[in-house]
Amino acid sequence: MSGVQMRHVRKQSPRWVLPSVTSLDHVTEAVAAPMMDRPAGPRYWIAFATMAALTLAGALGIAFSLAYGPGLWGNNSAVVWGFPIANYVWWIGIGNAGTLISSLLLLTRQKWRASINRAAEAMTLFAVSMAGIFPILHLGRQVYFYWLFPYPQAMGVWPQWRSALVWDFWSILSYLLFSILFFYVGLIPDVAALRDRPGKRGWRRFYGVLAMGWQGTPRQWRAQRRLHSIMAVIAVPLVCSVHSIVGLDFAASLMPGWTESIFPPYFVVGAFFSGFAVVVLIMLVIRWSMNLEGLIVPAHFDVMAKVILASAIVMGSSYGAEWFSAWWGGERGDIRLVVYEFTGDYWWLYLLMLAMNVLAPQLFWVAKLRTNAWALVGVSVGVLVGMWLERILIILNTLSTGYEPSFWRTYAPTIVDFIILGGTLAAFVLLFLILARLIPVVSMYEVRDLLADERQA
Amino acid sequence: MSIELDRRAILRLIATGAAASVAGCSPPRQHIYPAVNRPDDAQPGTLTRYATAIPLAGYARGVTGLVVDSRPIKLEGLAAHPASLGATDLFNEIAILDLYDPQRLRTPMFGDRPGTWDGAARAISSRVAARHGEGMVLLTGRVTSPTLLARIAALKESYPDLRHVRWEAVDDDAPIAAARHAFGRPLTQRPRLADADVILTLGADPLGPGPDQIANGRHWATRRRRDPMARLYAIEPSMTNTGAMADRRLSASPADLARACHGLAAALTGDRQAPDLPAPLAVLIRQAARDLAAARGRALVLAGDGQPAEVHAFVAWANSRLDAPVDWIAPVDPDSTPHRESIATLAADMRAGRVDTLIVIGANPVYAAPPALGFAEAMKRVPLIVAAVTMPDETSARAHWQLPLSHPLESWHDCRAPDGTASIAQPLIRPLYDSRSAIELVDLVGDAAADLDGYARVQQSWANLGADGWQEAVAGAIVPNTASRPAVVATAPLVLPPIDTTFGPAIEVRVSPTLYDGRFSTNAWAQECPEPLTKEVWGSSARMHPADMATIGIGDGDIVRIAQGHGTVVVPARAVRGQAKGVVTLFTGYGRRDTGAVADKIGANAWMLAGGGPAHVSKAGEHAPVLTTQHVFALDGELAKLYPVLRPDEAMAPAKAQPTLIPPNPPNQDAPPQWAMAIDTDICIGCNACVVACQAENNVPVIGPDEIATGRVMHWLRVDRYDVAETGAGFQPVPCMQCEKAPCEPVCPVEASVHTAEGLNAQVYNRCIGTRFCQANCPYKVRRFNFLDYSHSSVWGEAGDSSVKAQRNPEVTVRGRGVMEKCTYCVQRIAAAEHDADAQHRPVGAVQTACAAACPTEAITFGRLDEDGAIRRARANKRHYALLGELGTRPRTTYLARRVNPGNEA
Amino acid sequence: MAQLFRPGANTLVRAALACVVLAPLLLFLLGMTIVRSGYVTGEGRFVDQPVPFSHQHHAGDVGIDCRYCHTGVESQANAVIPPTHTCMTCHSQLWTNAQMLAPVRESMASGKPLAWNRVNRLPAYVYFDHHVHVQNGVPCAACHGDVRRMPLTRQTASLTMGWCLACHRSPEDRIVAPAREFEGDPYHGRTANDRAFAHAVMAHIVASGRKLTDCTVCHR
Fold this sequence. Notes:
The structure holds three protein chains of three kinds.
Chain A: H1 2-12, H2 24-36, H3 42-68, H4 83-107, H5 114-137, H6 164-196, H7 201-211, H8 218-251, H9 263-289, H10 298-329, H11 332-343, H12 347-359, H13 367-370, H14 373-400, H15 415-438, H16 444-456
Chain B: H1 7-21, E1 31-32, E2 47-56, E3 59-68, E4 71-77, H2 90-100, E5 109-110, E6 113-114, H3 117-130, E7 136-140, H4 146-158, E8 163-166, H5 173-183, E9 188-191, E10 198-202, H6 213-225, E11 231-236, H7 241-245, E12 248-251, H8 254-269, H9 279-294, E13 299-303, H10 309-322, E14 326-329, H11 339-351, E15 357-361, H12 365-368, H13 375-379, E16 384-389, H14 394-397, E17 401-404, E18 413-416, E19 422-425, H15 438-446, H16 454-461, H17 466-476, E20 506-510, H18 524-528, E21 542-544, H19 546-551, E22 558-564, E23 567-575, E24 583-587, E25 616-623, E26 645-646, E27 675-680, H20 689-697, H21 704-709, E28 718-724, E29 728-734, H22 744-747, E30 753-755, E31 761-763, H23 773-776, E32 784-785, E33 820-821, H24 827-839, H25 850-854, E34 860-864, H26 870-876, E35 880-881, E36 893-896, E37 898-899
Parallel strand pairs in B: 7-8, 7-15, 10-11, 10-13, 11-12, 15-16, 16-17, 20-24, 21-23, 26-37, 27-36
Antiparallel strand pairs in B: 2-3, 3-4, 5-6, 5-17, 9-14, 18-19, 22-23, 22-25, 27-34, 28-29, 30-31, 32-33, 35-36
Chain C: H1 8-36, H2 38-41, H3 55-61, H4 66-69, H5 84-91, H6 102-110, E1 116-117, H7 130-134, H8 141-144, H9 161-169, H10 192-208
Helix pairs in contact in C: 5-6
């Protein structure tokens, strides 16, 4: 369906690169110069220091959790799951969008992706790393997480393949490896360019190693392109499977509100949704901080805003579907759950979630707002908050009201819960800050193609 | 027989117990300490059972001690004993923890300095010898022990002026006084609940806490099982366990209760003017009277110990008129001076300086005596106070000498059951600390140099039994034919209680079902055991009628100040079901001081209000409710199916089969043995014996109030309490259902939750990595997670928990942090039975789970699905149902529905 | 402009890439081998004892029956380490002042138990029951090896869960006739009796619906 959006954009065929960008070299310079030649300003270092500090705090939170156990969190005997699971689902969702954007758009020949896919893929990489922390941290006995891995144990026993958690383990692992490779393959021509660019010898050697002897021969180009698109083809189903499996963690149960056949697709859309919100934020920051106004143009944001709008509608209808199936199915437990969602202990969070995920994006019906930085920031942040709330509420609403009223319990997070969540957010930004000083955050060679095309047109 | 074990050995065992609890592949080095010279019947690791008895408020209840490696680890019932009948109650179950409680007094203390027994003995004898015991008072709790009574008598012979004062905070003054009035002599009423078709309770709680709970529960259940169904009417100020089980129940203020007596008298005699009663009460009385009269000879009226003597006198009349199934026996406690009188006299004497030596053995007047007496103040006038206690308390804190008293399981003693049956109680372990038993202490008072030999003393007082008789009596913890003979009594005259209409809310002080009169407040198991009706833990609140709360402008959980005469308490208020308007109910046992980390500063001392008279209740603070483990009691709409309530002749609607994709397991369904459990909610009286029995058997840790506040619990077996009809309540014990199609199993990534061929839903602790998916997916929420390292963290403060580890069951893994645990039908007992069977090549014998063994009413039955027996009978019962059966989990634990028999309500 | 890399670089990179793939594999294999080695499992470990007790001498040469000291082995879960008293039944007469036996006499005199060092260690969460094994034809040697040939007692089996399961999955050929349970090397030359008895035991297990691989058989 994202395809639909894109083609629609295509019809008006806007210029994806501003006239200010004159030559192909200009592209390379515009991207590489701020990174390699100019020193990182005070703004950068302030941001860096803050994020490093927050990350450290998060690391401490994790260390304490490992030392003393899950008892430091808000989880209780009925609501045995809490922040870690929600954070995991949320992060992996953000990650998925990155891959989808670059692969799906690559397959559908959306040239405009050129200037955003690098950042998107980086986002995937970092988000998935953040997500990867939680399934293990969440365990009661983290030291034995490797028992999820089917290796010939001295105990002579194996993991249980019926459990969605085992599938999870595999999907995250393969997904992380894949996104690293996908990112790297797309990176090679650019690091080569940096290697051949006059600069410090040490840095050039560093890029040289990364470039793995890329000479830009037609043969290499052909190979790189083919590999890249083949991986893109693999990526799409992989991404969908990853988040479907996350959805199955809940769907493969018998608790009201979890046993929903709609969960897998609905999780994938949710992922796409929150991911795009993050991409918007990242692109805004890059554009502003590295003055790439020439390469990242309003039309980009216009398109992404439309995608967010579309996803918001799908999300809204999935919520509707949940309520409807509860009513239509007539399962008492499900009905009670829906009622609880609106009237129970977390009603205001639930309404806030609906407002953020469904209502706020409707602003984008107004064309002006789609290219207004503040509107974009506002809605994107809103969507992120909303999607996180959705993840936590899926857990809380169901576990707080099980089948046994005698065991209904409400959940209250602890400071440690928040510190750890904040820590991963900071770490995510920190990684981006580091990345921005190491490799081009906009894919130079693909933008050059784009420019060439448009010049011909 | 006693057990050869020196204290060093105990400490070693504790150490090894600690070592064993550390789960790990290869610790640096493990030692094995074989005994040096081992008696033949004490093979290491074998579980041996010894019969003995432990007293509650002086009354014996027989128990069977399960002893491993010379340390008792669990107490079970004693079938032959009339006050146990093979079952236990909460107090018998928690007794084992008191034995190992780290807060115990370990050495004699002079002030706050450690002293010696010689020192204490000399201090006493120097005074007693001089003045023939004049001014010396021996204060004890109720004494039914023939030996102890004999020793005290002997002591009095040598010191004629010595006085023995016995006093229990939970007294039976009113019923005794009533009997005096009715029959001219002190008698105790023994109702035969098994023969009662119709029972009317007037504030009575025969199924509630007390020395008779087990026996009453069993006899009541026996009748309840028989057809035609019996009927139970209850009129009471606040809901009791008995009231919860009543078929028709009304809450009534003391005044209304008195009116009810008048009404009943009128209805029974028919020749009197009935007073004007509130409409519902009038109706209930009319019907109760009708049914009672109709069931003449099998009808019974009971009055609560808390009720005034007049009510008891009236009940005596009613029962003799109804020719009720009651026996009157001479009081088992030979001393029949009213408890309140005796303690009051003592206080007066002390204040008047007529007491120069006070020896307190196992009594705590400073905490529980009526505040008007100013006991603590009076004590200041006594030159020498010696207090012998197992656990330091308010009284011992004010004594000059504190002496460690042996736990009943550590010493030879004897005592009588409430029906008079005598038990000779053998110790199951040598004293852990340098303590003495009450018998030895009394001897010590008489003669500082006496050679203390509890065994000899007890034996000589039973010399008449002869060697064989003695052997038999000790082995069975019963002396045959010692039960009191029922007395022949005249018909009691009609007495009508005065209808007191004083203004202001009436205070009802009730015996705590978990802490009794306070003697168990220091017991962590008791504190963490939910109160049956409100599910409060680690605290208690003032129970009030919502309307009363509204009038003084407080909400549920707000702090109130209750002032009455000399006493004032400040507690959170709680609006509870079945509370009479104008009555404020408090439980005893809270508000302790100087006892230790567990009990101190929890709740407020209800004894401060025990004086009687009107009270003043006012708002005193903000919202600070007491912790509870259950928050929702009402079952509205479709939830009602969780706790079906049937009419006497009604049957459960047959459950329809559910389609499922999960393959049937266990694969060989029919291959024996297939274990299952059936729980009859119609006779579950919510006594919590099963909850703590499970805790004791399965090394379930105590987690303390802070953890509970975060919504965490560890009890494997919880007793859900739900509202029944308009005024009643019902109990539903919920252990693991051992589902045949268990939702927890397919979701566990490491197969820590697995099914066995025998239908158990096993949890492999050492395989569990703590994803908690199983509990998330469990519809019954019966799995418990170790969020912190509970088994190695202590709620006992500085005392630490090393001694508690000696209680741990060596056959059950001590779970570490991050592991999910749950009920597995006491799989260790099943395994033991099967291993013995296989080793001796015979079929597997009967297995009893800890909860089933404990249950006083035999509401919990455990057995095999594959052979005819209790389980099959239960499953064939028309009241049989599976909890949440419609989910298709096919639980192995199933239920029999609760019944209500309201009768013809016209 | 000078070349960034010397010609060797390519080879270096290829080698590095190869390592990236191979190193985890090798580490994995190494780990798998180590956890199964006696270094971790303690298989073949000798443990020094306060008194250098020789099963070879007592059970082998002198021919004392296992059950003389290990009295629980046929009647209960715990096979029992004998009390000092048992040692003294003989050694109050024999070697009454042998230096080697000083600790035993000292223990008897002082009432302080001997601190033997455990040879066959099972984790605290494993519940092994001797009598059900011995009474059903699993010989001592199955786990303890031929102690009659051990001057100092040695842990002969790895005692890993895999090792236990191997037998619990197919016990038949580890079961011998009751008569031979206490032999040093009962598996050498299985008799028809052995096979018959093994057959009977297996039949019983099947009939009883007991599954030897149920987790609750060893864990609770």
